[in-house]
């Protein structure tokens, strides 16, 4: 199993009473809640934490894209990836991702990723997402066009990386007489592509197509839903005539490690509850606007998220559903070994900083995890689960 340190860069100084006036930390929360001087401190602190993960032996570090919210301060993740490109030496840098349907010109991402890949000598992982529903409100984009724009933007970027230029591209949304991407990516034919998702059936089927075989990442879902979606990916691959392995699926999950289970629970409790109850707070119509998902996918995603929509979440709720990993190194090793054997993922993306978790606890947890959890899995072959139905 490979380990990628995931960071969301939340605005940790958010007034916890904001929800007395506003129903979400996304889109409609006034940016007067944001203090640029605190933002300056947080950005640099978070970059330090990502750089620290590189020195501690994580296989990769991850940044991602969100807009108009206090949940994650990376509307342009390439800025963070660029800062990290010269300050890290060993780890992969995964941009998870760029929200392709929001782009007016996908070639800007083709160029940006090619630059990052070249600067790092081939350490880039290219993440492509549709973006969650809130992004469509923030950007004024039509969610009903999400899949089509995503597919077309993806095709344009991949062609820009792999076909000799210049060539013409004529699509429904994008039209170019001259596609001629300079620079070309360092990795040939192109950087590995990962597809994070909440569990859209169409996205899973698209990622598992034999023309792509992209690594699929499940984000913020209880472990039961994780198992179902990863089984769906493997079933889809089987139907297409190829066998998906652990390297094709990954799990992104908030994680906290401390000396004992009791210490871990006590230290993580206020910060993980702030994360789920304050920063992730949004009405259903903002998360899943009409047209964003097919009916089948909507039913599946809503079922998976139902356990998170039943009011205030406590740390015990979150640990019981295994949507938050928390405990001593021994406990985390046991849980991860069990889940890996049952579900078969080959990548774990622990979010080691979440909510208001302060710097010193983030560093302590990261160090313990890197020294006492990751080495246990080095050299162990990832297991393939027994086949089970996804529905």
Query: Any low-confidence stretches, pLDDT <50, length ≥5?
Result: none
Instruction: Give the ordered list of helices and strands.
Output: EHEHEHEHHEEEHEHEHHHHEHEHH
Q: How many H/I helices?
A: 14
The level of helicity is 40-55%
Overall pLDDT level: 94
Provide the spatial order of strands within the biggest beta sheet.
1-2-3-4-7-8-9-11
- Given this structure, which CATH class is correct? Alpha Beta
Shape: globular
Amino- and carboxy-terminal Cα gap:
26 Å
Largest sheet: 8 strands, parallel, barrel
Beta content comes to: 15-25%
Structural account:
This is LLM class flavin-dependent oxidoreductase. The chain has 391 residues and is α/β, with parallel strands linked by helices. The chain has a single domain (2-381), classed as Alpha-Beta Barrel (TIM Barrel), CATH 3.20.20.30. It has helices at residues 36-55, 77-87, 107-119, 133-139, 146-162, 201-207, 223-240, 261-279, 284-287, 295-305, 315-320, 329-343, 359-372, 374-377, and strands at 2-6, 60-63, 92-99, 124-129, 167-170, 175-179, 193-197, 215-219, 249-257, 325-327, 347-351. The strands form two sheets. It has an eight-stranded parallel β-barrel, surrounded by seven helices. The longest helix has 20 residues, at 36-55. The radius of gyration is 20 Å and the shape is globular.
Structural descriptors:
391 residues, alpha/beta, TIM Barrel, eight-stranded parallel β-barrel, globular
